[in-house]
Specification:
The structure holds 2 protein chains of 2 kinds.
Chain A (H helix, E strand, L loop, with lengths): L2 H5 L2 H26 L3 H24 L14 H21 L4 H22 L10 H6 L7 H20 L1 H9 L1 H6 L4 H23 L1 H18 L3 H26 L3 H19 L3
Helix pairs in contact in A: 2-7, 2-10, 2-11, 2-12, 3-4, 3-5, 3-10, 3-11, 4-5, 4-10, 7-10, 10-11, 11-12, 11-13, 12-13
Chain B lengths: L1 H10 L6 E10 L2 E11 L4 E5 L6 H9 L6 E6 L2 E2 L7 E4 L13 H10 L8 H13 L15 H13 L5 E5 L11 H14 L2 E5 L3 H7 L2 E6 L1 E6 L1 H4 L2 H8 L11
Parallel strand pairs in B: 3-8, 3-9, 6-7, 7-8
Antiparallel strand pairs in B: 1-2, 1-4, 4-5, 9-10
Helix pairs in contact in B: 3-4, 3-5, 4-5
The chains are: A mainly alpha, B alpha/beta.
The complex binds adenosine-5'-triphosphate (ATP) and magnesium ion.
Chain lengths: 283, 256
């Protein structure tokens, strides 16, 4: 069977489209995340999403809404989204409003979220079939993307990429030097808040579909590799998106031929692109 | 030089380039600036002097609208500080700079034209940016990655960035730090030339009292409070400086 036969399967098409959508928005966001030394933010918010999904799953199960006709709205994602956004706001506030550094702030949100997630998932009776388990949420399955999820991802990818591209110049300026940007009239505090909220949305939605681990990889590895190859922020942005796209295509194809899990193959493909960049890239 | 300077000062409008009114700034419970007031006439060259921690940088940031004072206010050309960024060129005090940021010196200078980070530098922008770099004696830096610049080269790039927009007010915070300008005289030359063809106002924080006395129209002596403001010969007397600096100020600087 060739890759063309695989492309005939709707689940493979959905995986491909979802992966490319995530690659584009995460690649754009990743540039600012990496340059602002917020790489850990991806993990923090993805785990916050996990915490939110735990709460969501518990609420859905205990309110007897499982399998009801409310469709999309009974998915844990709708709890994950606001929960990650709140976590993003808390992290932003801890950074600006206290003397804590961002990695400490993220670490706090991270630990609390995972604890909440594990706690609430454990409260769900084991015989309840939600269609998602804690393991699914952590490791996800890009081949298991459903039709409704796909539209959600595409919508978020389109919206967030548009916002990131529109604000690129100001975000870049504020990332380079917050004070200079402020002196030139850029509202860097608002911009940072927006960046964090955008990260929360992108990460919660992507993580709920492809899993926390794959999401964190999409956010950081392509941008980090791009940093090693680029001379300018614009080049870094283009290369970051391309790395994500190429690793999605190559990863899915490889996982198909080798019959190995798609998520980890994509991460390893990203690593395979990152290693030569680290070895041969600019200092 | 003194005579055309007077001519220039007398020819300008009545609206001061920088108006600082009863400004008090506190950080936590530390009062950094206390009741500072002065008017800087348009076209003047001001030197701001004072010991370390005197609040000089804070005063510059108040003028830029970066620091909002607890009391009082600052106005530029009669309008609230921070409202007209495009009319101001700012050279920050030498700062630790993120050497992992992928950028060229030319791009940094272009931020002075765009007030945002350039995705692609247009030919017209590149031309102006190169001319600005040339003016500060750093033409060869244009295509160099920022990460490869020395501290002094970086200061020159920041100076070019401030001047490229042809500001009406130039605010410089110890711009000569680490730069091999000949005892700041080159720097003053450069700024005076810029002033001569643009009519701009310059305010510069400096520790070189000798150069300030020689070049500046006005000197502001600061140590939390305003210890003196006026022409160099009036303000830079031994007592004023001693009161501000809190110790006897030795050295050739004052005996010029
Ligand atoms: N953002 C801030 N938060 C708290 N304290 C600050 C802040 N900025 C400045 N300070 C304090 O205000 C005082 C004045 O600082 P400022 O940088 O204005 O001094 P300066 O005159 O420029 O000194 P230097 O000659 O060393 O540059 C210092 O004691 C400094 O610690
Ligand atoms: Mg200072």
């Amino acid at each position: 069977m060739s890759i063309l036969d695989a492309l005939a399967f709707p689940f493979f098409q959905r995986a491909l489209v979802a992966g490319l959508a995530i690659a584009v928005m995460a690649g754009l966001l990743g540039v600012f995340v990496v340059q602002r030394r917020l790489s850990f933010l991806g993990d923090g918010l993805a785990h916050a999403a996990f915490g939110g999904m735990g709460i969501g799953a518990f609420v859905i199960v205990s309110s007897g809404l499982v399998g009801s006709r409310l469709g999309l709205f009974t998915q844990p994602l709708w709890f994950a989204l606001p929960f990650s956004m709140v976590a993003a706001l808390v992290i932003a506030w801890l950074r600006r409003g206290t003397r804590l550094s961002s990695d400490t702030a993220i670490g706090v949100a991270f630990a609390v979220s995972v604890a909440l997630g594990v706690m609430f998932f454990s409260l769900i009776p084991p015989d309840m079939n939600l269609g998602v388990s804690a393991m699914d949420l952590l490791f996800g399955s890009i081949l298991g993307v459903r039709g409704g999820d796909l539209w959600l991802i595409l919508g978020v990818a389109l919206g967030s990429s548009l916002v990131l591209l529109l604000l690129w110049g100001r975000l870049g300026y504020a990332t380079f030097d917050d004070e200079l940007a402020r002196a030139d009239g850029v509202r860097t505090d608002r911009l940072e808040l927006l960046l964090f909220l955008l990260a929360a949305v992108i990460i919660a939605v992507s993580a709920s579909v492809v899993g926390v681990i794959l999401m964190a990889a999409y956010l950081v590895i392509p941008a980090a590799a791009a940093r090693l190859l680029a001379r300018t922020l614009a080049q870094m942005t283009v290369v970051s998106v391309l790395m994500g796209v190429v690793s999605t295509l190559a990863g899915l194809a490889l996982s198909f031929y080798l019959d190995v899990p798609s998520g980890s193959t994509i991460v390893l493909t990203q690593a395979a692109l990152f290693v030569p960049a680290a070895l041969f890239g600019r200092r | 030089m003194a005579s055309d300077r007077h001519h220039r000062l007398s020819a300008v409008s009545a609206v001061p380039a920088l108006h600082v009114h009863q400004v008090t700034v506190r950080f936590g419970d530390a009062t950094v600036l206390e009741d500072v007031s002065f008017d800087l006439p348009a076209g003047a060259f001001l030197a701001i002097v004072g010991p370390n921690g005197a609040g000089k940088s804070t005063l510059v940031k108040v003028a830029l609208g970066l620091v909002v004072p607890q009391r009082g206010h600052a106005a530029l050309f009669g309008e609230p500080a921070g409202d007209h960024a495009e009319r101001v060129g700012y050279v920050p005090q030498l700062k630790t700079f993120d050497r992992t940021f992928p950028a060229t010196a030319l791009e940094l200078v272009v931020t002075g034209l765009r007030r945002s980070w350039p995705a692609r530098v247009r030919p017209a922008e590149a031309e102006r940016a190169r001319a600005a770099l040339e003016r500060v004696g750093a033409a060869e830096l244009a295509t160099r990655p920022l990460a490869r610049l020395s501290g002094g080269e970086l200061q020159r790039a920041y100076l070019a960035r401030a001047l490229v927009r042809r500001p009406e007010l130039v605010l410089l915070d110890e711009p000569a730090t680490g730069v091999d300008f000949l005892a700041e005289h080159d720097l003053y030359d450069l700024l005076e030339r810029y002033q001569a063809d643009s009519g701009a106002t310059v305010a510069m924080v400096t520790h070189d009292l000798a150069a300030a006395r020689y070049h500046a129209d006005m000197v502001l002596v600061l140590n939390r409070r305003l210890h003196g403001y006026g022409t160099p010969d009036v303000v830079m007397c031994e007592e004023c400086l001693q009161a501000a600096f809190g110790h006897k100020h030795h050295g050739h600087a004052l005996s010029l």
